[in-house]
Amino acid sequence: MQKVPDKKGYFGQFGGKFIPETLSVCLEELEGAYRKALKSKKFKADLDYLLKDYAGRPTALYYAPNLSKFLGMKVYLKREDLLHTGAHKINNSLGQILLAKFMGKERIIAETGAGQHGVSVATVARLFGLDCDVYMGSEDIERQKMNVFRMKVLGARVIPVESGSKTLKDACNDAIRDWVTNVKNTYYLIGSVVGPHPYPLIVRDFQSVIGKETKRQILKKEKKLPDYLVACVGGGSNSIGLFHPFFDDRKVKFIGVEAAGYGFKKANAASLIEGEVGVLHGAKSYVLQDKFGQIKNAHSVAPGLDYPAVGPEHAFYKSIKRASYVGVEDKEAIEGFNLLSQLEGVIPALESAHAIFYLKKLAKKAKGKMAVVCLSGRGDKDLEIVQAHTKKR
Amino acid sequence: MRIQDKFEQLKKKRKKAFIAYVPFGYPSCSHTKDILLTLQEAGVDIIELGIPFSDPLADGPIIQDATSLALKHGANPDKLFSLLEDLKGSLRIPLVIMTYYNPLLHYGMERFFSKMKKVNISGLMVVDLPIEESKLYTKCAAKYDLETVFFITPTTGLARAKKIAKASKGFIYYVSVTGITGPKDLGYAALKKDIRKLKEISRLPICVGFGIHTPKQVDQILKISDGAIVGSGIVKFIADHFRQDRFLPRFKNFVSSLCIK
After folding, report:
1. How high is the ipTM of this complex?
2. Where do the DSSP E strands lie in chain A?
C-alpha cells in the first residue's frame, strides 16, 4: 500500500498543517502521543473493549433483500446506524478520548454540524468524566434541536456560533479559536478526516474499523469482494473509513456521494466536484470558494454534509482516480430516505440517504453487481426535516 | 521603503516602532485611503494592512466583525492594489500585508507578489502559514524582494524559534498571548524573558502584537521590545466613531495618543 500521509502530513499534494504558530507545538505533541498510543498494547486493548462492549461493534453487514430486488443488484448495508449514539462518529470519538486521556488533557472541545459528532463527544466525555464544550452553528442548533438536548442531558455545554453562515464551518473556526486560547489543558476532538495533520490520519485510522470489518464479513458471506463501495462524503470520515482498507483491492470501485444541495452551479456542498484547491481549517484540499479565495457557504439538507471542504485524502483519491465522486441533490436524498425506510424498515440518516439514492443511478449500469453501502447513521434526528419537506410539496 | 531601513532609521533616532493594523476595505474601500494617510500623519511607523478573509480563525470578535463588513462591501486584493497605486508617493511609511493563506494561494503567489511590488508594499505575513509549509513562499517573496514576517508565540520552543527567525525578514512578530486577537491584560515579566531569549538567537527587531490596546501597554511593550502592534484597539475606535462628525481628526488624535513614545 502506498504510504499516505507522508511525514509532513501530505496525501499527494493535499493535507499539510496550515495553522497559526501557537498550535504548531500541540500538533507535534498530538503526533507524538498518537505514535506512542499506537505502540501501546493497553491503548489498543482499551479501545477494542470500548468499541465492542460500549459502542456495539462489530456492526452487522446486512444483506438488503427488498432493496436488492428493487434495484436489480446485490446490496449490503454496513450498519453503523446500529452503534451507540446512532452513527459511526463514536468510533472516532472513543479513539480520540483515549488519546486525550493518554495525553493528560482535562477538557474536550469539539465542533458539530448535525450534532451527531457533538453527541458522540459529549457521550465519551461523560464516560471519562472530562469537561466538554461543543461549538455548534446557531442555524444547526435550530434544525437539530433533539441532538442539542441530548448533548445537554449528557452534561456538555453547547456554545452557539453566530458568525458567518452559522453552520459547521463557523463552528470549526470557533473551536480552533478556543483551542488556540486554551491549548495547554484542552484537547480538540475533530469529528472528520479534516483539519491539520495529524487529524486526517488519526480520524481515518479510527474509522477504518468500518472497512476492516466489512472486508472480513463480505468474504465470509460472499467469498469475494464487492464490486462497489458507496458512501456519503461531507468531511469524509465514514467513506474513508470504509474505503481505506480496500485501497489495494483495485477491482473494488469506490464511489463517494457528495451533497449536491439545490443542484450543481447552485448552493450545494459538493466540494470535490465544484470546489477548487484551497486551504481551509488547516489542510489543503478541495474547497468551495469564490474567485478571491473567500470560502462559500455550503448547503445541504443533511446538516452533516453541510461543509465547504473535504478531507485531503479524498482529494488525493480523486487526483489519482482511485475513487469517483458523484452528487445527489436534497430532494433525491429525501427520496433515498423514504426508499430505504419503506423497503427495508430501516430509517437512514439524511447523510447516508444520499448514498442510498445514488444506488438507483448506479443500478442502471451495474445490474447484477454487488455493492456495500455505508449506512453511517440512523435517521431519527432528521424526522423533523423530512416532515417539513413533505409538507412543502 | 523597506521595513529593515525603517528600523535602521528609528535606531539612529533611538526610537521604537509603533505599528498599526487596519483591515483593508473597512468600513469601506474609500475609507481605507483616508485611514492610511491619517495613520501616517499620526506618527505611525509601519502600517499592517489586513486582507479580509471569510474565516479568520486567529481573530477575535472585533476584527471578525470588521473584516466581514469589509467583505460585504466588496473588498478584494484588486481594489487594494488599485488604491495603493493612487497612494504612490503620498504614503511614505512601510506597508506590510497581513493575510490568511487561502486568498493568497487562490490569487496566485507570483501574481500577488508582483502586484505588491508594483505598489511599493514592503512585505507580508501569513497567519496560517507556519514555517514548515513556507519554503516556496519565502523563495517566491525573496524573488520580488518582499520581506517575510513570521510569528513566534509563547508556545514556540527555542529550536523552532531559530528556524522561524532564519526565515524572517524585516521583523519578528512576537505574539504576546496564547490566543486570538483582541484586548487583553499582558504579563510583562514573562514577555520580557521571552524576548530576551529571542534576542540571543536573532538580530532582527522583535515587535509584539495581540492584546495591546492602551497607551500604557504600548509604553510597557516598547520598553522591552523593538515595536508594538495595535490592531483590535484601533479597529474598535473606527467601529465606534466612523459614522460621527470629524472622524478623521479624532482618529488621528486617538492614534497619536497611543504612539507617543
Report:
1. 0.96
2. 10-11, 14-15, 61-63, 74-79, 107-112, 131-137, 157-161, 186-188, 228-233, 253-261, 276-280, 283-287, 323-329, 370-375
